[in-house]
User: Fold Reverse transcriptase zinc-binding domain-containing protein from invertebrate metagenome.
Amino acid sequence: MYLLKESCQTGFIPDIVRILRKYDLFNQLLQYTSDTVFPSSSKWKSIVYKAVFNWEELMMYNRMNNDSDFSRFMLIQDVISPHILWTVALKFPEHLSKLSNIVRLCTDLRSTNLIELCHFCGFLHDDRISHIVLHCTKTESLRDDLWCLISAVFDIEFSVFLHSLSEYNLIHVLLGGSLPYRLSPSDHVIFVLHSAIFVDKMLLLYQH
Assistant:
């Protein structure tokens, strides 16, 4: 009746139809009206889950691709799933506060063309986080400790790989971004944990 009488669309049916259209599920309703066959409960749940996920993913990509503020965040989290830092926090809850600090930092990361002068080392930079973590003399000892730990815990090939990255990509890897290197799941967790701990220490040291 809804399809036949578009001028009299009252009640909850219009809301259902709008939702179906939003998630590209309206064809399921049309098919039902033609053959009166509807998917089973389990199959329908699967169809709805995939449709909603695809819509949310599309919206995320559209927003990030059209908003320069998200250009760097895409290097850290480019899929709809819990960030790896939250996964690490579940395994190491004693470091939750440090990991939470890095997550907040990731969401605040912005590209900027502003040139700033470091009040510790006197160098000019246009990326405050990269400067603190990768260059500033104030955090040099912590940075050396992180590289020593990486060399001691992981194979030399991994250390060489990290040194081969551009500074732009390296900072995002240290913040828990996508790692284009094959580490075992357990080693990846350890790397993310120690990177987050050291980055958090550097940021705290820089603030004092």
Residues 81-206 form one domain. The longest strand covers residues 116-117. Strands lie at 116-117, 124-125. The chain has a mean pLDDT of 86.
